[in-house]
From TrEMBL:
Described function: In addition to polymerase activity, this DNA polymerase exhibits 3'-5' and 5'-3' exonuclease activity.
Domain 5'-3' exonuclease as annotated: residue spans: 5-268
Originating organism: Neorhizobium lilium
Low complexity: compositionally biased ranges: 325-341
Keyword Acetylation: no
UniProt region (Disordered), positions on chain: 313-349
Protein name: DNA polymerase I
Matching Pfam families: 5_3_exonuc, 5_3_exonuc_N, DNA_pol_A, DNA_pol_A_exo1
Span of domain DNA-directed DNA polymerase family A palm: 746-954
Family under the similarity heading: Belongs to the DNA polymerase type-A family.
Domain 3'-5' exonuclease residue range list: 375-578
Signal peptide boundaries: none
GO-annotated biological processes: DNA-templated DNA replication; double-strand break repair
Length: 994
């Protein structure tokens, strides 16, 4: 840390109590968990970060940390046992929120700091003095008077609730003394809240007067006989030692041993997906949307995070003494449960209608205890054979493969867990028993790479030789959650899973948009049970273990519970698919994706590192050139990434109009502001260009080579199922679906994806599929006719709206029609269209009005959709997929409007997603029927596009198979009113093929 840096230190414990007491109680809707303090804390922290990155209190922090009290027992208790003794325990509903708030801090990508034996104020004091000594400035985010002793010309405080800075002058104004005398003043006054005794009869004003007269506490105590007021003099003399004791209590330590040095506190950007995942888990809808918008991520595509709810000894918080707290590490539901489900098949709903069956099972399992003591570890081959016979007898088996990595392409198999229905009951219900088969757990001792193999385990080979016939037996139904992982991991060991159900996908079909689809979420929702978490078992951070290094018995409890829960959830959800007439959606659109995507992920795609390396250099040069242009336009050099400096240049120095100020009076330079300015001013346009170039470099050209698999030498993305409300797939590690296609740089990045020698890449892309779906669902005659006749749809729209002949259509008129065509699908406003076309808002509004006049069926579709979603809470694609919008009746107009726009778009985007899913599910068999299964392989799906790698000699045979399969994907379920069209071509790289 150096001069010019600025450290923000947030008093996290103070934030907790301010959030808790300032806001009304709030509970999580799904389970009633108190989350009011967490919500307040997250909103306060988000606002602080948003303002700070922009202008904050006049500065932009370079370093940032949130500081918490470890617990109430600190060194001050050793000095004075009665210190804080009069404080009552925290409210019961606040206790589980302490741990959640710490998790929230980490989700914000911020250092979360606490030190046993010290208070947060001591840690703040230590960091503040170290930073000040290094020449940096410090802002302490707190209003706590105890911290005012730290204020100097370089150390300030900021009360975020009152939007008020506290410097030397403010301390003097409040207390009558400067910060350097605050320790003595507090020692004299005492503190009833912290039980600091002080001197009886001495209040703040009197203390300030005495310090003004005598200079400091020591001098005052030495010359106490000079005090004229008898009572005051007697009190000071009698309680001199008490005053000295109080000074030791209120004086903050500046020598706390720090786990993180100052350089570790550098403020990093928020990890949008990570933060959104946490907020979704907490069910903070409004803040989730706000963060997702600011971080430019698709909240619907992000799975809620796995959250640990702590209580008792693990729920550290101010004034919660771990020695007096309970021992439970996870907040368990209040409802008691019995040892294991003892209901017979009839009691679980056998021979009932599907709706009644689902209800009966849900009620039964909601009161059935999950007892981990009933789980077993399979260590002998004879015992495994018994379980295999049980699966063959009942015809149903829940299975999970546990690896030593979250990447099934690189991880190794550590064990397999199984769950069975009791052999005496039919698959409609019965007792569930679960087991874990450890296969390659390590002892933690031995070699430096993880220790020797633990004793008393079956070998991977002998176990898989027994399990392979069962797992590939189509007459035995295998159950799992997120089965794609197990499918891919087992396939690497020569096992191809056959005949399966995935409860994650079943729940997704039933309740997309209502909540998370993680196993923990489903367990809490349907079974009322909070399961063990990965952190409970393997830890986290630097001390976290891979699963193969977890103690076998602990691993068994975790892994066996997962398949136990999977079996129970399947029993509840399976009849719901039938009762709600969604079985076809699950079986035709979701279940086939498990194998299809796993095969694609295993194949991967080749990249040319040299192209990316050269492109990375080009992007760096372009960014530097644009940077120079920015400096020339600005007339000076400045930090382009600094919102404050950028705001000063754009609105202060250059006086550009259209800027907005924050509450602190500083200029806002959000992405939206810059985009609006870029439409009319060159400098902000260059800044937008610079940001795009640097993002492409860091996200793709620099990062992609790191994803090359060490053995296959290819990049293997991972597709996320059940991650969006509409059914669209997303890809991660790396994300290959967000590479821009309309920019030169984006196309160059795609050019780095290449075919192997003797092959070509084939790109097959649906042409304007969402507009075609819109023409179908809204039944627009003009659009239907244009698509049927192969007329350019944007020229036709321009002709309809502006009365211009299609032949010789001016490019700018067509561009306007294109912007409206695509904008209407996403509910574009006049404001948004005006920005996109660089026209006045009134003109844009007139365009939209004219559009609806020319195509009244679109307006009717929108209004009908809004009415439907308000009544039912969901909308449907043309194939029956449901997208739920629980907040459609929100009293908040902006929330309601957002849900209405999403609901209008969902049937269109979702139907397009369903069509390409249907095509993917049929593609392998279509290629096989043409004798191309070994010569043409589907590698990637990117929204409306499929990418294949095909042998050179088979290109001509492959293209018609691919095109026909895609164009006929909706049949026979739906006879589209407009034809689907696919453009397909082959080339040596992705860019040329597209």
């Amino acid at each position: 840390m150096k001069k010019g840096d600025h450290l923000f230190l947030v008093d996290g414990s103070g934030f907790i109590f301010r959030a808790f007491h300032a806001l009304p109680p709030l509970t999580r809707k799904s389970d009633g968990l108190p989350v009011g303090a967490v919500s307040g804390f997250c909103n306060m922290l988000w606002k602080l970060l948003t303002d700070a990155r922009d202008t904050s209190v006049g500065v932009t922090p370079s370093h940032f940390a949130v500081i918490f009290d470890y617990a109430s027992k600190t060194f001050r208790k050793d000095i004075y046992d009665a210190y804080k003794a009069n404080r009552s325990a925290p409210p019961e509903e606040l206790v589980p929120q302490f741990g959640l708030i710490r998790q929230a801090t980490r989700a914000f990508n911020l250092p979360c700091i606490e030190t046993e034996g010290f208070e947060a104020d001591d840690i703040i004091a230590t960091y503040a003095r170290k930073a000040e000594a290094a020449g940096a400035d410090v802002t302490i985010i707190s209003s706590d008077k105890d911290l005012m002793q730290l204020v100097t010309s370089n150390v300030h405080m900021y009360d975020s609730m009152k939007d008020k800075q506290i410097g030397v002058a403010e301390v003097i104004e409040k207390w009558g003394v400067g910060p350097e005398k605050m320790i003595d003043l507090q020692a004299m006054v005492g503190d009833t809240v912290d039980n600091v005794p002080g001197i009886p009869g001495i209040g703040p004003k009197t203390a300030a007067q005495l310090l003004e007269e005598f200079g400091d506490l020591d001098t005052l105590l030495e010359r106490a006989g000079e005090i004229k007021q008898v009572k005051r003099r007697e009190n000071i003399v009698a309680h001199a030692e008490q005053a000295r004791l109080s000074r030791r209590l209120v004086e903050l330590r500046t020598d706390v041993p720090l786990g993180l040095d100052l350089e570790a506190l550098v403020l990093e950007p928020q990890d949008g997906p990570k933060l959104v995942a946490f907020l979704k888990a907490m069910e903070f809808g409004t803040l989730t949307r706000r963060v997702a918008a600011a971080c430019a991520c698709d909240a619907e595509a992000i799975e809620p995070a796995v959250i640990t709810v702590e209580s008792g000894a693990t729920a550290r918080g101010p004034d919660l003494d771990p020695e007096q707290a309970g021992s439970s590490s996870v907040a368990a539901p209040a409802a008691p449960r019995t040892a294991r489900s003892q209901q017979t098949g009839t009691e679980l709903g056998k021979d009932m209608r599907p709706a009644d069956l689902a209800k009966t099972r849900a009620e039964a399992f909601a009161t059935a205890k999950i007892d981990r003591s009933c789980y077993v570890t399979i260590r002998e081959i004879e015992e495994l054979d018994d379980w295999i016979r049980g699966a063959l007898d009942t015809g149903i088996l829940a299975v999970e493969a546990e690896g030593n990595s979250i990447d099934p392409m690189q991880g190794e198999l550590a064990g397999i867990s199984l769950a069975l229905l009791d052999n005496t009951h039919a698959p409609s219900g019965g007792e569930i028993r679960s087991a874990y088969i450890p296969l390659d757990h390590k002892t933690g001792e031995g070699d430096l790479l993880g220790g020797g193999r633990a004793d008393n385990q079956l070998t991977i080979r002998e176990a898989l030789d027994r399990l392979k016939p069962l797992l590939e037996n189509p007459s035995v139904l295998k159950l799992g959650h997120n089965l794609k992982f197990a499918y891919l991991l087992l396939k690497r060991y020569g096992i191809t899973l056959q005949s399966y159900d995935d409860v994650m996908l079943m729940s997704y079909v039933l309740e997309a948009g209502k909540g998370g689809q993680g196993l923990d979420s489903l367990s809490e929702r349907w079974l009322g049970h909070v399961p063990m978490t990965w952190k409970d078992v393997a830890g986290s951070g630097k001390s976290g273990l891979s699963f193969d290094k977890v103690d076998i018995e602990r691993a068994m409890a975790y892994a066996a519970e997962k398949v136990d829960l999977t079996m129970r959830i399947w029993l509840v959800l399976k009849p719901r698919l039938a009762s709600e007439k969604l079985t076809t959606v699950y079986e035709r659109l979701e279940r086939p994706m498990v194998a299809t995507l796993a095969e694609m992920e295993e194949r991967g795609i080749t990249i040319d590192r040299q192209i990316l390396s050269r492109l990375s250099g080009e992007l760096a040069q372009k960014a530097a050139a644009v940077e120079d242009e920015i400096f020339q336009l600005a007339g000076e050099k400045f930090t382009i990434g600094s919102p404050k400096q950028l705001g000063d240049i754009l609105f202060g120095k250059m006086g550009l109009s259209g800027g907005a100020k924050t509450k602190t009076g500083q200029w806002s330079t959000s992405a939206q502001v810059l985009e609006e300015l870029a439409a009319v001013h060159e400098l902000p346009r260059k800044i937008v260009d610079w940001r795009q170039l640097t993002k492409l470099k860091s996200t793709y050209t620099d990062a992609l080579p790191g994803y090359v698999h060490p053995q296959t030498k290819r990049v293997h993305t991972s597709y996320s199922l059940a991650s969006t409300t509409t059914g669209r797939l997303s890809s991660v590690e790396p994300n290959l679906q967000n590479i821009p296609i309309r920019t030169t740089e984006g196309r160059k990045i795609r050019a780095a994806f290449i075919s192997t020698p003797g092959h070509k890449l084939v790109s097959a892309d649906y042409s304007q599929i969402e507009l075609r779906v819109l023409a179908h669902v809204a039944d627009i005659p003009q659009l239907r006719q244009a698509f049927a006749e192969g007329i350019d749809i944007h020229s036709m729209t321009a002709s309809e709206m502006f009365g211009v002949p299609v032949e010789g259509m001016p490019a700018d008129i067509r561009r306007r029609a294109k912007a409206i065509n695509f904008g209407i699908i996403y509910g574009i406003s006049a404001f948004g269209l005006a920005n996109q076309l660089s026209i006045e808002r009134s003109e844009a509004g007139e365009y939209i009005k004219r559009y609806f006049e020319r195509f009244p069926g679109i307006r009717d579709y929108m209004e009908n959709t809004k009415s439907f979603v308000r009544e039912h809470g969901y909308v449907e694609t043309i194939f029956g997929r449901r997208a739920h919008y629980p907040e459609i009746r929100s009293s908040n107009p902006s929330v309601r409007a957002f849900n209405e726009r999403a609901a209008i778009n969902a049937p269109i985007q979702g139907s397009a997603a369903d069509i390409i899913r249907r095509a993917m599910a049929r593609m392998e068999s279509a290629l096989a029927q043409a004798g191309l299964e070994e010569k043409a392989r589907m590698l990637l799906q990117v929204h409306d596009e499929l990418i294949f790698e095909v042998e050179d000699a088979e290109i001509e045979r492959t293209l018609p198979v691919v095109v026909t399969t895609m164009e006929q994907a909706a049949m026979p379920a739906i006879a589209m009113k407009v034809p689907l069209k696919v453009d397909a071509r082959a080339a040596v790289n992705w860019d040329e093929a597209h």
